[in-house]
Amino acid sequence: MRRLRNRSLAVLATLGALTLTGCGTGAHAPGDGAASAGSGRTITAHRLMRLTTVHQETGMTLLEGPVFGEDGRLVVVDVTAPAGKPKVMSVDVRGKTARKVFTDSRGAYTSAQFSPYDGRLYLSDFAHGEIVSLAPDGSDRRTFFTGEVDGARMRPDDVAFDRDGNLYVSDSLGLSEGEARGRVVRIDRDGRKATVLADGLAAPNGISFDVDHRGLWISELTENRISYLPVGERAGTTGRHTAVRVDGGIAQTDSIAVDADGNLYQGLHGRPAMAVYDRYGERLATVEVPARAEGLESATNVAITPGGTKAYMTVSGPAGGYLYTFDALAEGVRQSNGG
Q1: pTM of the entire predicted model
Q2: Percentage above 90 pLDDT, the chain
Q3: What whole-number distance in Å separates Cα of residue 5 and Cα of residue 21?
Q4: Distance CA 172, CA 9 (A)
Q5: What is the mean pLDDT of residues 303-317?
Q6: Nearest residue to 90 via CA among 114, 106, 110, 66
Q7: What are the domain boundaries of the chain?
Q8: Residue 261 binned pLDDT confidence (cut-offs 50, 70, 90)
Q9: Structural fold of domain 2-336
């Protein structure tokens, strides 16, 4: 997705950042061909609504981080929204309406999650290497974590919480240099202590706990693979391994979510589609937008309705930023919010 990548670099120069983990390297036409051999069945996603158009100031729009709040509304971030435009939106998926929750003059927010500990909304600011939090209504912005971790400032992409409210971050350190220096960082729920759980990763992007909270699924953007990282009771780790090699072609692995059966929903940047795997790496399905949909280049992320199977996928491109819906293979749980 060279056009999108070139626009992304220009955008991040404006935002004061080096690069953007959500950016792939090539475009893929919507619905091109059938799912490849061994890719399971094809699920067609249907357009729900358009949330954004391309911003004149940044030259693009990129939706990410869908997460359901306790009020039943879907929170979505627009990574490249300029100052004054909605950077965090709240969507009534039944009424097909959206309202601005938060904006500022500096952040490039690539993910959103509600904490099980304090109920606040946590955002990763990729441009400034920070984690910030908001009250659910978008007020009371606080800096949760900033500064260096083991001598290097993070490039935080996606986030996930454990049951106790400790935060786990996919740190895309090294992406702009093309080096496998990415990390998984654990931040205690009070924001005071940060620990590197894994390093040497190839631009880690998506991150989600498995159903039992025994380990983390991590998608590595520049290697098109999903790794599995067991997480010990005291934040120690053992036995990280490559779990799935994603046949993405020119598309790259973006955010990741997990349903109640443990299935993985892997977003693709550079193609408006998602790949669905079971926990053992078998390709179960490919979620596609209809072939007639034009100007859409990425399906970065997904959220599945808690206790239901209706899934909401963030899809973006020159045509704007959209929500598409499909029926997931199992019900939504906390891990079904794509970080």
Answers
A1: 0.89
A2: 81
A3: 10
A4: 15
A5: 97
A6: 66
A7: 2-336
A8: very high
A9: Neuraminidase (2.120.10)
